Amino acid sequence: MEPADSGIRTVFVTAPDATVGADIARQLVATRLAACVNIVPGVHSVYRWEGAVREDTEAMLIIKTVAGRCDELAAKIQDLHPYDVPEVLVLAATGGAAAYIAWVEAETHP
Fold first, then answer.
1. What contacts 99, CB < 8 A, 6 or more positions away?
2. 3 domain-assigned
3. CATH code at position 81
4. How far, CA to CA in Å, does 23 sit from each of 27, 49, 90?
5. Does some domain include residue 1?
6. Which of 11, 18, 30, 96 is the most buried (most CB within 10 A)?
7. What confidence score (pLDDT) does residue 2 get?
8. pLDDT digits (tens, 9 = 90+) for 55-84
9. Which DSSP letter does residue 67 get?
10. Sign of the C-alpha dihedral computed for residues 4, 6, 7 and 13 taken in this order
C-alpha cells in the first residue's frame, strides 16, 4: 500500500547565486506562496544549454508549499527569476510529521 499524498509539495529551483536565491525566497514567503525556503549555496551544476555542455556554481532553493499554490508559485518564480528557463520541479510529499504539514498548510493559506 502506498502512503497517502500529504498535500505538501517540495519544489526545487536553482538560482545563479545565494543572493538571488534569497531575494526569490523572501518574496515567496512574504506572499505566502511558500512556508519555507532552504537555500543551499555552492551547488555544482552540469547541463546542456543551447547545444553546449556547461558547468556553473548555483544555489539550490528547496521550497515547501501546498499543492494548491504550485501554479501561482511557478508563475511567480518565472516573474522573479533571471534565467530564461528556470528550473521548477515539484515533488509530492507522501507523509511527514503532522505538525509540520499543518504548519506548511497554515503558512501558505492566502
1. none
2. no
3. 3.30.70.120
4. 6, 25, 20
5. no
6. 11
7. 65
8. 999 999 999 999 999 999 999 999 999 999
9. G
10. negative
CB half-sphere exposure, 92, CA atoms < 13 A: 9
pLDDT tens digit sequence for 34-62: 999 999 999 999 999 999 999 999 999 99
Strands (E) across 1-110 are located at 8-15, 36-49, 52-66, 89-92
Residue 92 lies in a domain: yes
- Domain holding 68, by residue range, is 8-107
Asked if the structure places residue 77 within a domain, the reply is yes
Instruction: Render pLDDT for 92-109 as a digit per residue (tens, 0 to 9).
Output: 999 899 999 999 999 999
CA–CA gap between residue 87 and residue 79 (Å, rounded): 13
- For strands 52-66 and 89-92, give the pairing: unpaired
Cell numbers describing residue 20? 538571488
The number of distinct structural domains making up the chain is 1
Give the pLDDT of residue 4: 81
